[in-house]
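User: I'm putting together notes for a lab meeting next week and I want to include a structural view of one of the chains we've been expressing. I don't have a solved structure, so I'd like a prediction I can at least talk through. The sequence is below, exactly as it appears in our construct file.
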Amino acid sequence: MIPAPFEYVAPSTVDEAISALAEAGEDAKVLAGGQSLLPVLRMRLATPTTLVDLGKVAELRGVREDGDALVIGSMTTHYDVQRDALVAEHAALLKAATDTVADPQIRHRGTFGGALAHADPAGDLLAPVLALGCELVVAGQDGRRTVAAADFFQDMFTTALAADELLVEVRVPKHTGWHAHYEKFNRVAQAWSMVAVAACVRTEAGTIEEARVALTNMGSTPVRAAGVEEALVGCAATAEAIRGAAERAAEGTNPTADGNSDVEYRQHLARVLTGRAVLAAAGS
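Assistant: Thanks for the context. Below is the predicted structure for the 284-residue chain, given as structure tokens.
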């Protein structure tokens, strides 16, 4: 199939993009990398009256330092995040998760901000952004505002973005010296996660001093594994202790059953994958 007819707008600045969205109203769609939107348009599951293409908005690309945070532009591709030296040094969890996103072709086209704004609960970047305590900067006609990751993801495919707002950048607190791992379980290579775990820990002398753990596809939004984090702090970075803490991974989750697995299996996966992710991070 081919998409339904729409008006095409290609602004070159954020202000122009916001104006285009405001003029088009709620029936507009934003095109970032297009890896999620274009298939939906072709199947006519979405029929926007206007498509606002951000491909020419250069100010939305790139990674830079700003004090104790990294700032990643929303149109920065997965490939650029994956290869960026600042990300590798200060936000290793983002690199680890981005390494698992789809395939090289999609990583060259798909964008960091586009994946977050799409808010697919099976997407691989939402949980790392939540675990790292990122802040998402949103721009609209009333100016810019900052939204914590915990407040940005509101439901399946639903975020705090208003119809006339854009996600312009993500502020990532530096976790320099922390070790990270993203453990993903899927049926076939390059598929969406059935369950995945983002883990980031800081260790000293064989003891876990701080831990950040979040789960992918264990609810309609990414879930912070608070019980696991609590159990990990102060414990020895041993397989036995970590697996014991990981038994709390399913607490507070609300997974759904589908053609891939039932609820109980997803809860089992959460516990097993959390143990693997934290053990890999603590041992790296």
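A couple of points you could mention at the meeting. The radius of gyration is 19 Å. The first strand starts at residue 7 and ends at 9.

User: Perfect, that's what I needed.
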